[in-house]
Amino acid sequence: MHGKFYPAMPPMATAVRTQSVADAVPAAEIPRFPATLLQEGADLLALGLPKPVIARAMRAALEHGTSVESECCALGVAEELLYHQALAKALDLPFIAALRAGAVHDGAHLDTQLLRPEILRLYHPGQAPTQVIVPRLADLDTIWRQLEAKPGLRRLLAVTTPRAVRQAVWEAGAERRLRAATSHLFENWPLLSARIVLWGKQGFVAGVATGTLVAGCLALPTITLIAAHLVLAIIHLAGFGLRLSALVAARRLPAIALPPPSAATGADLPIYSVMVALHREEAVVGQLIAALDRLEWPKSRLDIKLICEADDHATLQALSQMVLGGQYEIVRVPPGLPRTKPKALNYGLAGARGAIVAIYDAEDRPAPLQLLAAWAQFRHAPAELACLQAPIIITNGAAGALPALFALEYAALFRGLLPRLAAARLPLPLGGTSNHFRTEALRRAGGWDPFNVTEDADLGLRLARMGWRTGMIAPPTYEDAPTDIPVWVRQRTRWFKGWLQTWLVCMRRPRHLRAQLGWPAFITLQILIGGLLIAALSHPLILVFLAYFLWLLTLDAPAGRDLLTICLFTVDALNIVGCYAIQILLGLRSMREWERRAVGRRWALIPLYWLLMSYAAWTAVIELRSTPFRWNKTPHKPVQPA
Length: 642
Description:
single chain; alpha/beta; Spore Coat Polysaccharide Biosynthesis Protein SpsA, Chain A; 53% helix; elongated
């Protein structure tokens, strides 16, 4: 553009070109800028952009190692509109601010314009189509020469904004994209989808196992019950052993280094996509936007997608009242079943422009350095590292017994057990938020299963089965736990139902699963998913047996002195006490001081917490039969200031 374009421009623009860039940036600051940024600033000034906009864009480009053009568009919707209007005026082409989606023909390659909006054809009845373009500053000379050589092109061309192209493409391809978001995994890898609850032989095996247990209880009740009791005891003991190993190893695990805030500079930072699925979240959108705005990453290299159901008018209305930066995009998912978070994420993934994708929930407050920490780890890790999980910290532990025990559980999981699994290169059942993926690996793995109501755990295990690895990063995400028992039960029921779906999917071909993972990972998966489910379901039964044995002792009954009964009682007592103790110790060991103060002595109520979990697990089993894909929505409230 330097000098070639301007002689052909209208006289007014040529006169503007003679102004110094010092008209936009104070002369004292000019020595700080390299020549390329000064030239860009002068070019944008020549296009007629306001001086304050150019000055802000130049400072941001210097700080982030980007271009003035990209920073100008990242300032916001108004600046992007103003900038492309100026480009259209310079090219003497019409400008179209909004494109009619009905004029766009859907096709297999249409979604490329979501990733890099450049050109789109609009069809009009009875007249020639219009080609809308999104020109770049560096291309103006070339486009101008083509227009000079072929003046007839002016009747067919128009200029628009990247945002307008993406919005038209989202709408034009909505139905096709919805079908893909719903059916892609099932159509390509049916054995990896939870769309069919019991697959093939699984129903037969489940029926035979149930029949055998019933027949055994009728024919040989004592032997059958003792055998079942021993199996349950071994399962509880395995879960205790896994968590005990995490507690012992916690002192030996290396600390994960935090990147300095100054790392968010330099031209090598990739585009980072952040996706948040929102459904009936109008109460917390303000808090969410404030949290996302605090992320340490250049706004010009952020691609934040707020994914909403198209008929969720309350959330969309709340978002329309927010002042969103140029990095934000609202994606509307057409209504359709199943109405789940993973389906919405699959829909949004089609337009994710980043090399890395982060997933958050509506109520999340991620640490500002979290993206930097994930990028730094991905940058120095082999390609097999496909995902990073950030720890989740519960901040309302002081609000009551339920959130206190929830906080203890999360500390034990995200800062106790999962780092141990990651260090041992074992599969991680991901949390539902604060996951950071290499975008290419995520797409190659098939995205999320829209029929699995714990899509996070399912995807973490599927990545492991496909040869990828998951790690941990240090900067946490802060959340509030449910404070009402009915809300907690609905949430936990969904989790148990999803874990059962995940275990059934994994166990459709056990030999193949073992070959994919190897014995250590295969056994760990059984303990983590299957073992947790069985432990939760059987917990009340073991408590009943312990109470029964103690009752026998008070009666001095002969059965209370039976050696086998004493042995079973001893094992069960150790399992129950160990189960409670290891969760308390692992949780408290992983917590910060302020978290331990918030929990106080409420950890003593953990037996009641386990009974609630058992109730939720049995409810999940019932729901899996009746409503396997129903998503029990957890309502969220803004965080109250301390």
